[in-house]
Design brief:
alpha/beta, 286 residues, 8-stranded mixed sheet, globular
């Protein structure tokens, strides 16, 4: 099994700098939206691995090692399968967490029940995404996206994962821009990080209207002081947002130390939670 490489992209954005919309990048994304990985696909986009949750564990790990040795990755995006095959992605998450020093971004594209959210967290997922795609309730029902059930899953995930570690992806162009903006505001108010990607339908809207959505998104992150640093490689890939790049060897070293500190703190919190749950089961005789 090989790793499909999507080509080089930069991901050294400065999260402390004001993020603005790169109009040329927006036009490129509207013309050719980024596609997420399938459940049976392994591919790489510079510093991101997209891992399908139904891939065989051993072969996938070998391919990841081969590619990682050539150039380290900063983010592993793992798409979990349905309830019957969730355990496959769960095993992959454990292997990635054990063997690589990078954040795991897990995507569950259905209203995950509480025990699935708990298991994803225990397996090593650092950031959990449950996409809404369309926020307008009428459209959501029409397309069977089960908005209310997904919102309940997101709310529960907020009680499991650390602050600003639960996200929901909206698709710019799938609904009127005012609905997407409303979704951004609602998610932020609930403590959920809104992510926005460009839909293939965005071509039917003015580019300036699509750009305004991302400007509103960046401003919402800034006002709420959302921690987006672990997501920067993904944001650089799926959004037209741009910021000044950090420069200097010392700054780069400090960033690496900070990233390792974030990962260590996240792993410690996870271990404590898992231990508490195990002790509860033991005391109940289960």
């Amino acid at each position: 099994m090989g790793v499909m490489n999507l080509g080089p992209r930069t991901s050294n954005l400065d999260p402390e700098s004001p993020m603005t919309v790169d109009k040329q990048k927006l036009r490129n994304l509207i013309a050719s939206p980024v596609k997420h990985g399938t459940l049976t696909e392994l591919r790489r986009a510079d510093k991101i691995f997209f891992i399908g949750g139904e891939l065989p564990a051993k072969e996938t790990l070998e391919s990841l090692f081969d590619s990682y040795c050539q150039a380290p990755a900063e983010l592993f995006c793992l798409s979990f399968s349905d309830l019957n095959n969730f355990h496959c992605g769960e095993e992959l998450a454990r292997l990635v967490k054990k063997n690589f020093n990078a954040h795991i971004f897990g995507r569950i594209d259905y209203p995950a029940p509480p025990y699935i959210i708990e298991r994803a967290y225990a397996a090593g997922v650092d950031i959990l995404d449950i996409p809404l795609r369309v926020f307008d309730q009428g459209l959501a029902r029409e397309r069977g996206l089960e908005k209310e059930e997904r919102l309940k899953a997101l709310e529960y995930a907020r009680t499991v994962f650390p602050r600003w570690s639960v996200t929901s992806t909206l698709a710019a162009g799938e609904e009127p821009s005012c609905s997407t903006v409303s979704g951004i505001d609602t998610l932020l108010a609930a403590g959920i990080v809104p992510l926005v990607e460009v839909s293939a339908r965005a071509v039917h809207y003015p580019a300036d209207e699509m750009g305004a959505i991302f400007e509103h998104l960046a401003e919402g992150w800034r006002k709420r002081k959302v921690s987006i640093k672990p997501l920067l490689p993904l944001l650089d890939l799926i959004t037209p947002l741009a910021a000044h790049a950090r420069k200097g060897v010392l700054r780069g070293f400090i960033e690496k130390v900070y990233d390792r500190k974030l990962l260590a703190a996240s792993d410690l919190r996870r271990n404590l939670r898992v231990r508490q749950i195990e002790e509860s089961f033991e005391s109940a005789g289960l």
